[in-house]
Amino acid sequence: MKLTKKFALFLLRLAVTVCLLFLLSRKINLTHLLQVLTQVTWTPVWITVGIVLAVRLITYWRIWLLLKVQKVFCRFLHLIEVYWICDFGAFFLPGLVGGDILRIVGLQAFSRDVNKSGSAVLMERFLDLYYCGDVAV
Fold first, then answer.
1. Do residues 120 and 63 lie in contact, with contact meaning Cβ atoms separated by under 8 Å?
2. Contact 99, 37 (CB under 8 A)
């Protein structure tokens, strides 16, 4: 019974991912995208991708530390998996709140407590505001 439920959840995730990718492909002008990609200088693109990936990994490490403080233990790679899924889903939800709700639901798999996962996500947002204010000053 448990294997069947896992397989059904896998199929549901796969169906949602395919639907979201289809929606994304309908919103992108693929011919224009290919035309732009043929004229790109790739060195700055790869440097930018590296910087963005490093920033995201630092963000994931920060949320991992916030969960550890609350005695919620999870493997770092599982946390990255949950956050990448939530980031992908957040592309299709209005505002930042939708992505945060997905993160809270995703982190509940580790904490089994909505208060702990919600407070970790909320604390991450407050840290982001603090860092933005610190950089602005």
1. yes
2. no
